[in-house]
């Protein structure tokens, strides 16, 4: 429908259309003529131009029209705007809504003439003053008090003087005494061709009251409609309160309404406006009524207030309905409906009362034809329903920004609350509204694909119909000369050339999709393979997930995510670029290149750990296809020829790639999401490789990754038996740990049976000896702790306590890698009694002589061996070892780490001071010599875990963990003892003293940083991050200085690694890494 009000607000002259003479041979180029729709012609046209008469209108669109004259010339005329001021536009809309159609048309036409009278209105305040005077003339009442110098807006700045004059100069001349005298001279007027009966003074200035008298219509036609006009303008006033863009114009609008309320004898309305502007508007009526008025039936004696009505909705105390006039206060209606939906208020009383009027014009441009919101009736959540109302109303982020803060903040909080987990069936407009451009882009892509599929279906159906027609023709067996017609061309003729192009593109896309499906080997990530760069296609071989595609949606203009993926890529040979020395032979240079490749390969072998964390639970594999494992390539490429080399000419450790390949498989298994459907035993077995020892190691890691995500709980007992019976060490470890992790804390008997077969203490003494690898026994101990997590099972605690101090058996039994076995037993005991140390502290069976905590303390500090108690396999270890002679003392180098961590986990967050004091560092230099420096790291960590609530994110807390007596000797070069007054008699050599103090200091600080990182992991605490980061930089700087020799570079490197892991636990670092999105 055509909009009554023009949308362009520029006064443009009527000029000939460029190039029109070439289109119309009969037309001739006339000089430019300036015309405007106005009572007075601004410029006097040339006499030759005035001789042409307008015969037709052509190409009328928007606010311009092309005029055709009788001589063939064409002119384009721009219709002046109805108003520049948004405030005046809103008032005119109100008048249209409340007045009869003919009268409202007459009012708008009169205002149009008034608005475009001679004299420019270079500000909106002047236009508002002119509208107020115009309204005064229509109503027939004096309301001049509503005008002020500023019109409710900020005072205009004084314009700079112009050299070529301005319209104000003309107005000054028109108001001068000379003009008044000459306007009465009949001879002068006759010379100018002006009539002597009219006075131009009444049409010169819009800032005087004279224009009101010149525009008055006989009988003041709006006088009888004053109550309706007033009520409509009041609704406009209340609606303007919901738009901060009208905050300056509200005062002038309130002043006008206050004067009208005084005329109508409405003191309640006058008080309402005074409360909005108490220092600007009068408190009482300022006019005396001269007549009585007839109020319309919808008029309310109490002034409608949108803010008071919103408060009533929130307080669930709605007593009356809010008046709504179509096309006038649409914003008020939308906000009231949103708040009613958000508050989930009962509709005992209708929220809105629609005023029945007959507007003269209906225009979607000005009335915002969004009066009804359509939402899903099945939605019961008030928050989701409110957002769906906002979408149906067409509300956007700029709309919310234009609302007053008190109104917009609850709606913005609503959007932010739903932003994390929005419904999956929303439109892209809803995702844009809540601030999820990633989901909006994905939704637009899905809609585009849906439309393309519908178009293809329609084309194919049409093509099928044509093909059927062709078959019918063949059945008739009549040769009509159309046998060689291409049916694709007929489809093109029926649907246009764009259809042929789309068919070709469709076929091309289909072929590309098939090629991508083959190249990705069933990854199901066609969207990632389509349209990617060559670099991204190379990364897809490593990832097999949506990381690149989703990341591009989240950070469309940021390439750091792609750079991170490039750094974690391990499937391509690395670049080996070193310069050859002149005296170096080719063989030596080749060995140098391979040594350089070996140094780079150490970094490459660590990439699977980062890739596993980065892609954790991001893939839902296709169950009909195996999940590919990224290749771990340890080869190099020499530029510029691109020759590939390996490490065949240098000595490397045996089984160099053994554990890296295992971790590579774990990274692949961790990619599988925990909620991935149809992950069953048959699919797990289906991924089993056919041959190859390296592939078997990777597949073992893949099984462990599945178990860590809980998928090995679906592995059948028969398949588990098939894996274990083959005796592959890494596969056995993966099955034991994966099954236990899938049943963590469940005390599952089937898992216990599998674990018991791989632990000597759980095998009956009469059974035959089993050759169980040491690493498998360690994995079984950890699995035992996972299966009985937080159960405080006494039998398992008794068993693991004995395994911590398990002596070396006869011959070669339990003589190698005893430290890892004891540490695993301690960790398993800590997991079983996690946070339940008080329950296990006093456990003493009939054959025990000491409690659990006493035995752990004994294992930690050492002393004479104690008998823990009998057991199923205790008789096996009665004999002494032929390889290791320990004597009667506890070997704390073996038992101390496991016992320390077991105590820390058992008394986690308990605040037990007695146990915590056991972990305190020695108080004297003499006692410090009996403790290994690396044990101090574990003791500091365990003590902090016990005193959980006392951990503070300040540097002073870390300093308090260090004994005071060692601080003067930390990282300080020792002086000659002969030149000092220190008595070193009976003490260690002074250089050893300084080394031990420095090592103790570094380990205590690293342990405190680890405890601080665990305490504030994921909290985003800035203070904890700064403290750990400070000490991380301290260790990094020490490595570059010669002072590092005092503590040993290996010690500082270990402490730096621990501190970096602690730093990675902080959520603030995670946010910094993720700032590539939210």
TrEMBL record:
Residues 507-526 have a biased composition (Basic and acidic residues). Residues 507-530 are annotated as: Disordered. Belongs to the APC1 family. One of its GO terms (molecular function) is molecular adaptor activity. The keyword Cell inner membrane does not apply. It comes from Darwinula stevensoni. Residues 155-440 form the Anaphase-promoting complex subunit 1 middle domain. It comes from the Eukaryota. GO terms for cellular component: anaphase-promoting complex. The lineage of its organism: Eukaryota, Metazoa, Ecdysozoa, Arthropoda, Crustacea. GO terms for biological process: anaphase-promoting complex-dependent catabolic process; cell division; metaphase/anaphase transition of mitotic cell cycle; protein K11-linked ubiquitination. PANTHER family: ANAPHASE-PROMOTING COMPLEX SUBUNIT 1 (PTHR12827:SF3), MEIOTIC CHECKPOINT REGULATOR TSG24 FAMILY MEMBER (PTHR12827). Keywords: Cell cycle, Cell division, Mitosis, Repeat. InterPro entries: Apc1, Apc1_MidN, ARM-like, Proteasome/cyclosome_rpt. This is Anaphase-promoting complex subunit 1 middle domain-containing protein.
């Amino acid at each position: 429908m055509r909009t009554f009000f023009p949308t362009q607000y520029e006064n443009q002259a009527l000029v000939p259309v460029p190039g029109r003479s070439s289109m119309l041979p009969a037309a001739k180029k006339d000089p430019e003529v300036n015309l405007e729709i106005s009572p007075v012609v601004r410029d006097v046209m040339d006499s030759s131009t005035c001789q042409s008469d307008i015969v037709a209108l052509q190409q009328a669109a928007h606010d311009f029209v092309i005029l055709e004259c009788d001589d063939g010339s064409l002119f384009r005329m721009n219709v002046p705007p109805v108003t520049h001021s948004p405030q005046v536009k809103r008032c005119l809309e109100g008048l249209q809504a409340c007045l009869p159609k003919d009268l409202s048309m007459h009012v708008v036409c009169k205002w149009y003439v008034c608005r475009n009278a001679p004299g420019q209105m270079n500000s909106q305040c002047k236009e508002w003053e002119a509208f107020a005077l115009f309204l005064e003339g229509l109503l027939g009442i004096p309301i001049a008090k509503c005008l002020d110098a500023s019109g409710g807006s900020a005072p205009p700045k004084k314009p700079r003087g112009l050299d070529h004059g301005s319209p104000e100069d003309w107005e000054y001349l028109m108001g001068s005494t000379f003009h008044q005298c000459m306007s009465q001279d009949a001879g002068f007027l006759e010379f100018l061709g002006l009539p002597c009966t009219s006075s131009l003074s009444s049409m010169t200035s819009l800032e005087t009251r004279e224009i009101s008298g010149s525009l008055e219509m006989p009988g003041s036609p709006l006088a009888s409609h004053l109550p309706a006009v007033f009520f409509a303008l009041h609704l406009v006033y209340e609606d303007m309160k919901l738009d901060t863009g009208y905050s300056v114009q509200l005062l002038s609008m309130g002043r006008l309404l206050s004067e009208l309320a005084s005329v109508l004898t409405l003191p309640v309305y006058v008080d309402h406006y005074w409360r909005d502007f108490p220092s600007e508007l009068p408190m009482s009526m300022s006019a005396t009524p001269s007549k009585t008025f007839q109020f319309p039936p919808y008029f309310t004696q109490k002034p409608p207030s949108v803010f008071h009505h919103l408060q009533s909705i929130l307080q669930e105390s709605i007593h009356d309905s809010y008046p709504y006039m179509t096309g006038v206060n649409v914003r008020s209606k939308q906000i009231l409906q949103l708040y009613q939906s958000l508050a989930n208020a009962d509709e005992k009383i209708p929220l809105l009362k629609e005023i029945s009027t007959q507007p003269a014009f209906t225009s979607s441009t000005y009335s915002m034809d969004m009066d009804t919101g359509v939402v899903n009736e099945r939605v019961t959540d008030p928050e989701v329903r409110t957002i769906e109302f906002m979408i149906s109303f067409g509300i956007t982020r700029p709309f919310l920004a234009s609302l007053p803060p008190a109104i917009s903040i609850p709606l913005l909080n609503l959007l932010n609350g739903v932003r994390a987990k929005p419904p999956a069936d929303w439109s892209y407009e809803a995702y844009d509204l809540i601030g999820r451009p990633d989901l909006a882009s994905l939704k637009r892509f899905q809609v585009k694909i849906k439309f393309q599929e519908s178009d293809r279906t329609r084309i194919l159906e049409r093509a099928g119909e044509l093909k059927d027609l062709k078959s019918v023709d063949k059945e008739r067996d009549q040769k009509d000369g159309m046998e060689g017609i291409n049916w694709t061309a007929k489809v093109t003729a029926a649907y246009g050339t764009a259809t042929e192009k789309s068919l070709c593109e469709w076929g091309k896309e289909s072929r590309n999709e098939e090629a991508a499906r083959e190249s990705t080997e069933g990854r199901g990530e066609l969207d990632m393979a389509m349209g990617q760069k060559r670099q991204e296609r190379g990364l897809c071989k490593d990832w097999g997930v949506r990381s690149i595609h989703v990341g591009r949606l989240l950070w469309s203009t940021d390439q750091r995510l792609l750079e991170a993926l490039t750094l974690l890529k391990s499937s391509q040979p690395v670049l080996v670029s070193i310069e050859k020395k002149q005296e170096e032979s080719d063989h030596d240079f080749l060995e140098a290149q391979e040594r350089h490749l070996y140094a780079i390969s150490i970094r490459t072998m660590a990439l699977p750990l980062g890739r596993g964390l980065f892609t954790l639970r991001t893939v839902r594999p296709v169950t009909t296809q195996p999940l590919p494992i990224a290749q771990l390539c340890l080869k190099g490429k020499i530029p510029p020829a691109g020759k590939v080399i390996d490490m065949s000419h240098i000595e490397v450790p045996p089984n160099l790639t053994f554990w890296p390949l295992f971790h590579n498989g774990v990274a692949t298994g961790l990619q599988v999401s925990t909620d991935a459907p149809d992950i069953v035993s048959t699919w797990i077995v289906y991924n089993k490789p056919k041959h190859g020892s390296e592939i078997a190691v990777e597949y073992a890691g893949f099984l462990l990754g599945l178990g860590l995500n809980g998928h090995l709980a679906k592995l059948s007992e028969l398949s588990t038996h098939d894996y274990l019976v083959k005796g592959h060490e890494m596969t056995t470890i993966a099955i034991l740990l994966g099954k236990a992790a899938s049943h963590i804390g469940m005390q599952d008997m089937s898992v216990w049976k599998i674990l018991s077969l791989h632990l000597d203490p759980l095998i009956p003494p009469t059974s035959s000896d089993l050759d169980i690898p040491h690493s498998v026994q360690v994995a079984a101990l950890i699995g035992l702790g996972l299966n009985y997590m937080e159960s405080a099972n006494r039998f398992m605690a008794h068993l693991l306590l004995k395994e911590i101090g398990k002596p070396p058996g006869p011959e070669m039994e339990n003589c190698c890698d005893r430290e890892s076995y004891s540490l695993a037993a301690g960790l398993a005991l800590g997991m079983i009694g996690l946070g339940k140390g008080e329950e296990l502290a006093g456990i003493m069976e009939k054959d025990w002589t000491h409690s659990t905590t006493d035995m752990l303390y004994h294992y930690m500090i050492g002393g004479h061996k104690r008998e823990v108690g009998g057991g199923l396999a205790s008789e096996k270890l009665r004999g002494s070892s032929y390889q290791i002679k320990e004597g009667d003392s506890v070997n704390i180098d073996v038992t101390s780490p496991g016992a320390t961590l077991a105590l820390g986990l058992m008394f986690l967050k308990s605040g037990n001071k007695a146990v915590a004091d056991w972990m305190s560092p020695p108080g004297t230099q003499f006692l410090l010599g009996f403790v290994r420096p690396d044990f101090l790291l574990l003791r500091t960590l365990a003590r902090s875990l016990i005193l959980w609530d006392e951990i503070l994110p300040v540097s002073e807390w870390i300093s308090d963990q260090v004994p005071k007596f060692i601080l003067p000797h930390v990282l300080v070069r020792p002086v000659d003892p002969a030149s000092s007054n220190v008595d070193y008699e009976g003490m260690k050599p002074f250089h050893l003293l300084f080394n031990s103090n420095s090592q103790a200091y570094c380990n205590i600080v690293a342990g405190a940083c680890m405890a601080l990182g665990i305490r504030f992991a994921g909290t985003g605490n800035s203070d904890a991050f700064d403290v750990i980061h400070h000490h991380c930089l301290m260790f990094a700087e020490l490595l570059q200085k010669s002072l590092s020799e005092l503590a040993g570079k290996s010690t500082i490197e270990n402490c730096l690694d621990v501190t970096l892991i602690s730093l990675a636990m902080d959520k603030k670092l995670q946010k910094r890494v993720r700032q590539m999105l939210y």
